[in-house]
Amino acid sequence: MTTQKVENIKPYESNSEKKVQIERMFDNIAGQYDFLNHFLTAGIDILWRKKAIQYIGLRKPQIILDMATGTGDFAFEALAIHPKKVIGVDLSQNMLNVGIEKSKQKNTTEQIEFVKGDSEALEYDTNYFDAITVGFGVRNFEHLENGLSELYRVLKPGGEIVILEPSFPKNPILRFLFTIHFRYITPFFGKLFAKDHSAYSYLPNSVAAFPEGQHFCDVLTQVGFKNTKFKSLTFGICTLFIGEK
Ligand SMILES: C[S@@+](CC[C@H](N)C(=O)[O-])C[C@H]1O[C@@H](n2cnc3c(N)ncnc32)[C@H](O)[C@@H]1O
After folding, report:
1. Mean pLDDT of the residues in the chain
2. What is the bridge-based pairing of β-strands 238-244 and 129-135?
3. CATH code 3.30.420.150 for 18-166+211-244
């Protein structure tokens, strides 16, 4: 097994904890997050979440945790597999507020609960959830292993976790184009629409520092998950990780 030290990239040039900075960053961009997310990925992010939900759907999970739920897109997508309840947990109250508004509009407030919380200290019993989803969230955890161990703890034996993360394509031409998009186009539009240049410069830096493919599967295995695997999506610009307790 290979292990890799995960560099802790922070959004702002300040000495405060990563967690505090992440909360502040997502509180700042919450109003523009959905638009920018779909715009910068040309809407493909929706397909990635659908694909991930298909995986956990096979075992018909009833209680699902959507960790780092943000504005709730993964939680809404999970309703396609008819669980009893989805609980979306996030550090940023402003992101959750957007999710709560969307839930009212979609008439899903009975099925989805939005809760402010930290991945490293979850207020749920051990073996509580049938499945866990995390969309573009684990990269932001202050202590990756602690956050993942906590997710492992609250997952039921036999339950599955699916994790989506952006990644750099292997093909050199695509990698070059993706790097241009990520390093220049994304921060430009981030600054223009979200008025937070740091937030969208943090994105490529944090992706570059995050363990890719098998390296991240090894981290999942280290914290206890088994049968870990990963699938490259859309020429490798996103990776779907799957693990089981
Ligand atoms: C890029 S957004 C992803 C939102 C959503 N999952 C999606 O698929 O669009 C990342 C979210 O992770 C949350 N987050 C980061 N670290 C967290 C932590 N330790 N505990 C809870 N939420 C966290 C942030 O507040 C932010 O809302």
Report:
1. 90
2. unpaired
3. no
- Which pLDDT band, with edges at 50, 70 and 90, does 16 fall under? confident
- pLDDT tens per residue across span 58-84: 999 999 999 999 999 999 999 999 999
DSSP-assigned beta bridge partners for residue 184: none
SS3 226: strand
Q: What percent of the chain has pLDDT over 90?
A: 67
> Residue 245 has which token pair?
């307790």
Q: Which residue has the tokens 């994105």?
A: 203
Whole-number Cα distances in Å, 222 to 16, 148, 197, 217:
28, 10, 35, 9
For the chain, domain boundaries = 18-166+211-244
Q: How far is the CA of 119 from the centre of ligand 1 (A)?
A: 9
Measured from CB, residues less than 6 Å from any atom of ligand 1 are 19, 22, 26, 37, 68-70, 73-74, 89-92, 95, 118-120, 135-137, 140-141, 147
| Closest residue CA from atom 10 of ligand 1 | 137
What lies within 8 Å, CB to CB, of 218 at 6+ separation is 1, 2, 3, 4, 211, 228
Averaged pLDDT, 183-189: 81
Distance 90 CA to ligand 1 centre (A): 6
Q: How many CB atoms lie within 10 A of CB 61?
A: 23
At 65, list the tokens: 């945790």
- pLDDT tens digits, one per residue of 93-152: 999 999 999 999 999 999 999 999 999 999 999 999 999 999 999 999 989 999 999 999
CA separation for the pair 243, 227 (Å, rounded): 6
